[in-house]
Amino acid sequence: MTALVLIEIENGKVRQASRSAIAAASRFGEVDALLLGNTGAEAAGTLAGVRKVLHVPTLTHALAEPAAALLATLAPSYSHILAASSSSGKNILPRLAGLLDVQPISDVVKIEDESTFIRPIYAGNALATVQSSDNVKILTIRSSSFDPVAESGGNASLEVLDAPADDGKSRFVKLEQSQSDRPELEVARVVISGGKGLKDASNFHNLLEPIADKLGAAIGASRAAVDSGFAPNEMQVGQTGKVVAPELYIATGLSGAIQHLAGMKDSRVIVAINIDPEAPIFKVADYGMVGDLFEILPALTKAL
Amino acid sequence: MKVLVPVKRVVDYNIKPRVAADGRGVETQGVKMSMNPFDEIALEEALRLREKGHASEVIAVTIGPQVAQDVLRTAMAMGADRAILISTDVDCEPRVVANLLKAVVEKEQPGLISMGKQAIDDDMNATGQMLAAKLGWPQGTFASQVDIADGHATVTREVDGGTETLALTLPAVITADLRLNEPRYASLPNIMKARKKPLETLEAASLGVDLTPHLTVVKVAEPPQRTAGIIVETVDELVQKLKTEAKVI
Ligand SMILES: Cc1cc2nc3c(=O)[nH]c(=O)nc-3n(C[C@H](O)[C@H](O)[C@H](O)COP(=O)(O)OP(=O)(O)OC[C@H]3O[C@@H](n4cnc5c(N)ncnc54)[C@H](O)[C@@H]3O)c2cc1C
Ligand SMILES: Nc1ncnc2c1ncn2[C@@H]1O[C@H](COP(=O)(O)O)[C@@H](O)[C@H]1O
Q1: Could you give the domains of chain B?
Q2: Which of these, A43, A124, B231, B233, is most buried using a 10 Å CB contact count?
Q3: For residues B94-111, average pLDDT
Q4: What is the mean pLDDT of residues A13-32?
Q5: In chain B, what residues touch A170 (CB-CB under 8 Å)?
Q6: Domain A185-303 in this protein, CATH class
Q7: Domain A2-160 falls in which CATH fold?
Q8: Which ligand minimizes its atom distance to the CA of A256?
Q9: Taking CB atoms and an 8 Å limit, are A176 and B163 in contact across chains?
Q10: Does the pLDDT value for residue A179 go beyond 80?
């Protein structure tokens, strides 16, 4: 059995989520990596546990249509095709599955054997063990459930491939990336998140950033906070946002709706700060503090 | 152009699902069911396109048992012109749903398919992409903004590091993210009117699609439960606990 992993590059490095997908893929046998775009070949070549890097330098922007078409031509050589459960992985792999009439398996958190997998359903309120009868298994991997392979130590061979012919029905227009010096949410050791209770965008920044600075934390948000314009959408944690499992998750001014819990309840230690002692977030918190965040957060900043 | 809106009947998002005693799924007996929230957003977008003059007709379609008619009535009460029930008692996986929808698309010839990015029961996030592939249409997934002009859809998408904009040649598939719009409520008069709108039923078995799943559920289990910890009284106590007890800072 050989697995192929679609990897993603960010700032010249292979994303941690992709390295987790490679770790998952290594359970099936040898691992090849598929790299799209004109950067990252060097970083991909040193990944631990990768046999060969297939590089398609002319396929920039990872558009789903040509990427899935290319993957479909490679699929006959592989038993498993994987990617991170990232926005890119979830855009491309189901399209590939559509081309091959395969049922894809999203958000795998555990591999039981070559065809049996565990994945959360109903916003993580249940775990389904599913078995695939497809010839090629198409999986997206929840990165918080697999320790990533190392960035270095490997020595993969490199094969450059041409992009498939494209009908041009989908055209890239622009990418607006938010700039931040903070660690990525999915990777951060500590995450501090704010909700509707922060009341406005300036509080969100002024109260959370100093703590995040002190702890080297990433900042997350509830959907209500994002909807109210306190934070950009890529900060949303939850069923439909990002799934994180840091060492420490500090939830402030957010109630703990099941959709939010879906994105953070596997954190090792959870702290909740909320004025309402009945807030559901306290049911999952290791340490709860009932009180006004406008008093507690500045005091916490000072005490750290 | 016609806009096709696939909508799924799911356990209402306000309800905390419980794993059924037989470990085959979650409890749905006597549980409130509703239209998948992402599909409401997808439908709202289709209605707005009609109101702006980009669409001539909005057709809601669902695949499910007879009772799934209720989400189609809701869709028509919100403003869909008509609805199609693809009736089956078989639990259809996204691959089968995509194959059935493809058959409907071939019959109805819509210029746009507006659907949810994810069903909140299976959380698969796959059907739209699969359908687009099967049709050979371009896809705009996780859409937070859609503009139609000159046979194109300009779609802004929510991606991990920010937002991406694509230009798609119609026909295309769009999957809605939460921030695309705020769906309207159905007014009482519109709920009454919806009862008279046409609802067509097609037997899934009549569409020439194999309904056998490729993915079988072996078991459904409760995830490990977290238990509530302790309440601390002061910030100093909290910091102390995090340092010496939890050892995380
Ligand atoms: C399909 C769907 C998907 C969703 N996906 C997500 C998702 O991915 N992520 C997500 O987060 N949500 C998601 N939601 C929304 C979710 O249901 C909740 O509406 C949302 O999480 C609530 O955000 P919140 O806790 O910030 O706001 P609220 O529920 O309004 O809670 C605010 C909290 O702040 C507290 N508070 C107020 N003032 C203070 C103060 N001065 N000091 C301390 N505490 C204070 C209050 O006691 C309250 O508990 C989704 C919803 C749907 C329908
Ligand atoms: N049984 C169904 N009937 C109609 N539409 C469906 C059905 N299942 C999935 N869909 C559509 O596909 C989207 C994504 O579902 P999923 O891939 O299961 O997460 C949903 O938001 C619906 O728009």
Answers
A1: 2-224 (3.40.50.620)
A2: A124
A3: 98
A4: 97
A5: 138-140, 166-169
A6: alpha beta
A7: Rossmann fold (3.40.50)
A8: 1
A9: yes
A10: no
